[in-house]
UniProtKB/TrEMBL annotation:
The chain crosses the membrane at residues 33-60, 72-93, 114-138, 144-167, 179-206, 212-241. It comes from Roseibium aggregatum. The lineage of its organism: Bacteria, Pseudomonadati, Pseudomonadota, Alphaproteobacteria, Hyphomicrobiales. Coiled coil: none annotated. Keywords: Membrane, Transmembrane, Transmembrane helix. This is Glycerophosphoryl diester phosphodiesterase membrane domain-containing protein.
Length: 260
């Protein structure tokens, strides 16, 4: 007797629709997205600048490794970047669902859930980055595949309070959908990279004007780079929502209700 469950087609992730909706949310709520990411990014760049130098923090000067002290400073700078990424992602995940449901975007309401999730999110982000880095060293595809496996770790931690179980939760949700997720993420990363290249070009021009130019450059880079990071965070939030819908029958309004 044939097992009918084996013949059932897998529901489509709908990558094109998710990417289109992510762009729509970004453009419609552009100012709010920039505000959400700007403050953490700016604070992160200031701290990194004090640790490794502002030129190195912005990427317009090479990082120096002159001894144990500089190595520790660079490691701390990376940790600061991870924490900033975690806070920004946790904030934008909530914004994305309010925007998708056409609910008012209330930035002040997002900080409590974001801060409560920042420790596991930051630590797991470091773990994923190490795993992806190892995969990229071996071959590019394994690194990208690992990225796809743990792509929705951040929404799982923020929304489900999964804590350090966020990796396992992401692994379960992304199963059978990793190739389309990978395609969407690669497109988002390309967009974010282009935006960051433009930001670095602008910063390079402005920073050449001296110390005042460097200050303006830091502010500009924090603002411009937020756009690419914001798009990626919104995309991941919508991928997570779609996976929950497919695998568990959970609607977006049910997902967003945890913040009410």
């Amino acid at each position: 007797m044939t097992d009918t469950t084996l013949s059932q087609p897998t529901a489509s992730l709908g990558v094109g629709s998710i990417i289109g909706e992510s762009f729509s949310i970004l453009l419609k709520h552009f100012i709010q997205v920039v505000i959400v990411g700007f403050v953490p990014n700016l604070i992160g760049f200031l701290i990194s600048g004090l640790l490794v130098g502002f030129g190195a923090a912005l990427g317009i000067q090479p990082q120096e490794f002159t001894g144990p002290g500089s190595a520790v400073a660079n490691v701390l700078s990376i940790l600061v970047s991870m924490v900033v990424y975690s806070i920004t992602t946790a904030l934008l995940v909530q914004l994305a669902y309010d925007a998708k449901l056409s609910r008012p975007v209330q930035l002040g309401r997002y900080f409590g859930p974001a801060l409560s999730a920042v420790v596991p999110l930051a630590i797991l982000s470091i773990v994923v980055s190490i795993l992806v880095g190892i995969g990229l060293v071996l071959l590019v595809v394994p690194g990208l595949w690992v990225y796809a496996v743990f792509a929705v770790m951040a929404p799982a931690v923020v929304i489900e309070r999964a804590g350090f179980g966020g990796l396992g939760r992401s692994k379960y949700l992304t199963k059978e959908y990793r190739w389309p997720i990978l395609g969407a993420l690669v497109l988002a990363i390309i967009c974010a990279t282009i935006i960051n290249i433009v930001a670095l070009f602008v910063v390079g021009l402005v920073a050449s004007a001296g110390s005042i130019g460097m200050v303006i450059g830091i502010i500009l880079f924090a603002a411009i780079s937020t756009v690419g990071a914001g798009f990626l965070s919104i995309l991941v939030a919508l991928i997570y929502a779609r996976l929950r819908e497919i695998k568990e029958g959970v609607s977006v309004d049910q997902i967003a209700s945890v913040f009410d």
